[in-house]
Amino acid sequence: MSIKLAQHFNTEIISADSRQFFKEMHIGTAAPTPEELSMAKHHFIHHKSVDEEYNVGAFEKDAIQCLKMLFEVHDTAIMVGGSGLYVDAVTKGLDDFPEVDRSIRVQLNNKLETEGLETLQHQLKALDPNAYDTIAIDNPQRVIRALEICIGSSKPYSSFLNKEKGKRPFKTISVGLTAERPIIYNRINRRVDIMMEQGQLEEAKSLLPKQHLNALNTVGYKELFNYLNGEWTLDFAVSEMKKNSRRFAKRQLTWFKRNKNTIWFDYDYDFGDVKIAIEKLL
Length: 282
Hints:
Layout: H1 2-8, E1 13-15, H2 34-39, E2 42-43, H3 56-71, E3 78-80, H4 84-91, H5 102-115, H6 117-127, H7 129-134, H8 140-153, E4 175-178, H9 181-198, H10 200-207, H11 222-228, H12 234-256, E5 263-266, H13 271-281
Parallel strand pairs: 1-2, 1-3, 4-5
Helix pairs in contact: 3-4, 5-6, 5-8, 6-8, 9-12, 11-12
């Protein structure tokens, strides 16, 4: 849909998928194919290495700069991607959090090492159930960030979210695709099988020496690392990839459905309907 829209409006695409930024992660992130990239100009696809530190704040600055450039020659720009926090950072701006004692993060990282992620997840659920239900709970960096705010401020992390921010110099139309849950889950399962057929295991094997990096603490890689480290069987690793992808999709839907202004289309959409709806809003 993003490519069709970019072609229709004669414009370019900004990717807000936080894992497609990394050039070493191609198969496991279902990055656009060379053919798709040739159909419309894309920004923020494979422009970083997993060795580089790149976070949502850096992406916000880079994407806003890119949009300034695009809006000099185009009336519209298309942004696409599954990382809700990164989408919101560009369209709304980042939330303002209080400064907290750095020692809290050190303590939480130590706890992660000694007691594991599940302990931190339970702690977050007790301190801030709203954050537990909405953040990427399988990402230890996100869990630690939410916990350090809860502990350091004595307030829920979620209480700092979605406050009034400065207005952006552009308007945003949010478009979503939806399907019945069995269809979504079946397609996720098939997508994992396709990735494995395309060589996802070999890609994970090439990245095994860097498995400690935050970029690689990602569904589709961490499960295969467990297999390659001799902890799991391959069949179990693939089944966990499917399960964790389904959980991730559920969280994505929860995140995106908070935006009451989104126009939703069935995944089996007619592009003419999409075009008419967007042009009416424009």
